[in-house]
Amino acid sequence: MNKPHAHSPHRGLLLMVVAPSGVGKTSLTRRLVADHNDLHLSISATTRDPRPGEHDGRDYHFVTKDKFKAMIDQDAFLEWAEVYGNYYGSPRPPIMEALERGESALFDIDFQGAMKVHAQAKEDSVLVYILPPSLAEMSRRLHTRSQDSEEVIHRRLSRAKDEVADWERFDYVILNEDFDRAYADLAHIYHAERLKRARNPWIGDLVGDLLKEEI
Ligand code: 5GP
């Protein structure tokens, strides 16, 4: 699936995947990154505590509020936001380095973060929203994973409702009813976006050569 192409894209993209919690976004994005070695997950910094099973540097960079504020002052974030009382931000350097290599970055961030990145990099960003089949199903999944209190679940559901109403701001909307189907949709989006003419300047050179050929 991920053989290097003879003419790889010269311009990477910023793939932003947004979904309410409990819609399976993490499984989808982790698999997309595992299947594509030219796509790098942007590991966010956060001031929230690690959940059981989460590792520093893999799931998040877990930092103190002071460290986070210092990073804001150093302009070290492409975007940052406060979500449910904690700070989250996308560190700028690894993303810029990936783009410079012609590779891409995937952002597992919230709605406001995705819109902020998009506002700064309209040509390079691709916005994908993942829809749950219903709010009832989303509520069921949140209860099954039992990570959140009733109050937090209620907040997540009402926030999802507000976000879903803004679905037209996204380039693509995927329904995650069946994981394999949703994954195939996400992978197809990534592949097609990489093939866009504007991301493949080598095509101009090739066409130039073709036009010079005698027939
Ligand atoms: P959680 O605490 O459940 O891991 O994440 C809470 C919310 O913060 C999720 O919607 C997640 O997508 C969002 N988030 C994670 N990293 C970032 C980031 O770097 N920037 C922004 N704006 N949101 C983030």
Automatic annotation (TrEMBL):
Q: Which InterPro entries match?
A: GK/Ca_channel_bsu, Guanylate_kin-like_dom, Guanylate_kinase, Guanylate_kinase_CS, P-loop_NTPase
User: Taxonomically, which superkingdom?
Assistant: Bacteria
Catalytic reactions of this protein = GMP + ATP = GDP + ADP
- List the CDD domains hit by this protein, alphabetically: GMPK
Entries under Pfam families matching the protein:
Guanylate_kin (PF00625)
Sequence similarity: Belongs to the guanylate kinase family.
* NCBIfam families registered for this protein in UniProt: guanyl_kin (TIGR03263)
**Protein known as:** Guanylate kinase
- Phylogenetic placement of the source organism: Bacteria, Pseudomonadati, Pseudomonadota, Alphaproteobacteria, Caulobacterales
Report the gene name.
Answer: gmk
